[in-house]
């Protein structure tokens, strides 16, 4: 599974990094996705990050 962050929406408030530090890293006020492929074991953390993002900047990339 792939996830992306919309750089036009992200405001760098760290909520995704706090929810899923294995997947998101905020640098220069922008969240970066660290993994090309999110393993199943981390899916629930990413779902949590999606829920917590106040800017709706995170979404799964559908194949
Ligand atoms: S929670 Fe959303 S707005 Fe905040 S850093 Fe992550 S992607 Fe950006």
Structural notes for this entry:
With 63 residues, this protein is an alpha+beta fold. It has a single domain (2-61), classed as Alpha-Beta Plaits (2-Layer Sandwich), CATH 3.30.70.20. It is 24% helix and 25% strand. The strands form 2 sheets. It has a two-stranded antiparallel sheet. It has a two-stranded antiparallel sheet with strand order 2-3. The longest helix is centred in the last third of the chain and has 10 residues, at 43-52. It is globular, with a radius of gyration of 10 Å. The protein starts with a strand and ends with a strand. The model has no long low-confidence stretch (mean pLDDT 97). The structure holds iron/sulfur cluster (SF4).
What class do helices, strands and sheet pairing give? alpha+beta
Strand content: 25-35%
Series of secondary-structure elements, N-terminal to C-terminal: EHEEHE
> How can the largest sheet be summarized?
2 strands, antiparallel
Q: What topology, given as strand order, has the largest sheet?
A: 1-4
**How many domain regions?**
1
Number of helices: 2
Helix content: 10-25%
Tell me the name of the CATH class: Alpha Beta
Molecules bound to protein = iron/sulfur cluster
Q: How many whole angstroms does the radius of gyration measure?
A: 10 Å
Number of strands: 4
